[in-house]
Amino acid sequence: MAAWRAPLAWLACLLLLAAGMAWLEPLFRWLEPDTRQVIYPHADFVMLLGRHLLVVTVASLLAILLGVTAAVLVTREGWRDFLPLVAQFAAMGQTLPPVAVLALAVPVLGFGTWPIIVALLLYGLLPIVRNTLAGLEGIDPAVHEAARGMGMSRGQVLRQVELPLAAPVILAGIRTSVTINIATAALGATVGASNLGAPIISGIVNGNSAYVLQGAVLIGLLALAVDSAFERCQRRLTRPGAGP
CA-to-CA distance for 159 and 138, rounded, in angstroms? Predict the structure, then answer.
């Protein structure tokens, strides 16, 4: 448990602030003395946090599923010709600004949560695909030969040798993807998604810096909690003698 002290501390700060934002009204009143309402009133912060986390989780799981599967597939014999295509498609997702993806997705999917999920999925693919390719391609060929010499099938080599060896590099890509998407998900509020971006967008529109600060601090704490949790997982995977 000592190794998880930092993630748990960030998580505790996040939950306490989300549940007790109203207690800080004097602080925000000092920041915005001429504003009648200084605590974002349109939704509960715990609910906004849950919705924000749900959107990021769904988009990240889809990105992991598609990104890792595609990267594994193009490193197999018979599929290597598609490797540049997969790498370029993943890079294209970060070339397009999330706002542009939202603008293109809204006419098809409507306002709400789905457009931001699509935007986060495309935006989060590149680190996952790139790191999965790097992890799998970086394995010493002698390891493959030794595994095949032990009588392992291709599927066994992938599951028992390649993926465990590449896991720290893959996890680093997932960590980058998820952390970026936690911040980017705030843009979903511009297309009607209810998450921690709502106070930020409302604060920008109404000139209320207290709203902006409330949403930004919660998003920052969420990113710190998630990133530190991934850091602990990476340390565990890269620890000498650690199992797959």
Answer: 16
Gap between the Cα atoms of 29 and 39, Å rounded:
9
Q: How many residues does the structure list for the chain?
A: 244
Are 179 and 171 a contacting pair, CB within 8 Å? Answer: no
- pLDDT tens profile 78-91: 888 888 888 888 88
Label residues 45-68 b or e (16+ Cβ within 10 Å = b): beebbebbbebbebbbebbbebbb
pLDDT one-digit tens code per residue, 99-132: 888 888 888 888 888 999 999 998 899 999 999 9
Task: Please write the tens of the pLDDT for every residue from 154-207.
Answer: 888 888 889 999 999 999 999 999 999 999 999 999 888 889 999 999 999 999
Instruction: Name the nearest CA neighbour of 18 among 45, 40, 50, 53.
Output: 45
Read off the pTM.
Answer: 0.89
What does residue 189 show for φ and ψ, rounded to 5 degrees? Answer: -65, -20
Token duo for residue 163: 């993926």
Q: For residues 203 and 212, is the Cβ–Cβ distance under 8 A?
A: yes
Name the CA radius of gyration of the chain, rounded.
21
H/E segment holding residue 179: helix 163-184
Mean pLDDT score of the chain, rounded to an integer?
A: 89
Q: Which residue is listed with tokens 């605590």?
A: 39
Instruction: Report the run of H or E that residue 111 belongs to, with start and end.
Output: none
Q: What is the largest CA-CA distance in the chain?
A: 76
**What 3-state class would DSSP assign to 240?**
coil
**In this structure, are residues 189 and 147 in contact, taking their beta carbons and an 8 Å threshold?**
no
